[in-house]
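testing teh design pipeline on a random one, pls ignore if ur not involved
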């Protein structure tokens, strides 16, 4: 049996158990959780929740929200449920073992206010796949594509509900096009740089279901100034 690691997140409030050899959370999860701006009683759906990192960060920062997570990999679901229990969040965070392509409002007792996601972002035929299947599925569009994510968000959000995602900067045109085709209008965009002298690595984007055109581009985020 693989020995697990326990990591304390910055601030010391949360502990996350992970597999040392499987998929582990990255700075992308921290960035999208920081980017999220929730209302006190929001109902939130985390698509591709993994070990529960984004769900737990949001639950800790916003005590009034209710969060549902959907994850395909059963190993990650087991770790996520362990993390939810270990951090005392069972009453506010629920993690489903479910395919994103088939999730419906019935799973969350109705439409949600916010969908948030750090999805697989490398096209199936692109790049070198990690030999660990768990890591490959989390990073590459093997089971879930960008369109699947946006379709699920459109299906799960209430009217005027919000979608928040972290995604590669190089795929921004494709992401915006896909959102608009599903009537989710991009409203806020933050460009993420690892260093000021390097090209952008990621974008953080928020869209509104049924929103009117018009986007705010914020100050850039620099991870390692």
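output:
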């Amino acid at each position: 049996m693989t020995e697990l690691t326990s990591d304390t997140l910055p601030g010391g409030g949360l502990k996350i158990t992970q597999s040392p050899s499987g998929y582990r959370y990255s700075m992308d999860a921290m960035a999208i959780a920081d980017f999220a701006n929730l209302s006190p009683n929001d109902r939130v759906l985390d698509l591709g929740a993994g070990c529960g990192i984004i769900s737990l960060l949001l639950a800790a920062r916003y005590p009034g929200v209710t969060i549902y997570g959907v994850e395909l990999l059963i190993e990650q679901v087991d770790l996520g449920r362990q993390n939810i229990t270990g951090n005392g969040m069972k009453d506010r965070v629920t993690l489903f073992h479910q395919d994103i392509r088939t999730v419906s409002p019935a799973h969350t007792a109705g439409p949600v206010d916010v969908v948030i996601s750090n999805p697989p972002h490398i096209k199936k035929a692109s790049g070198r796949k990690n030999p660990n299947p768990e890591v490959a599925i989390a990073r590459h569009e093997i089971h879930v594509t960008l369109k699947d994510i946006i379709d699920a968000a459109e299906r799960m959000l209430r009217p005027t509900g919000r979608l928040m995602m972290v995604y590669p900067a190089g795929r921004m045109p494709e992401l915006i096009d896909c959102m608009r085709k599903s009537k989710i209008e991009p409203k806020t965009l933050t460009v993420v740089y690892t260093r000021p002298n390097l090209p952008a690595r990621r974008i953080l984007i928020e869209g509104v279901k049924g929103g009117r055109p018009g986007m705010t581009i914020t100050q850039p985020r620099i991870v390692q100034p």
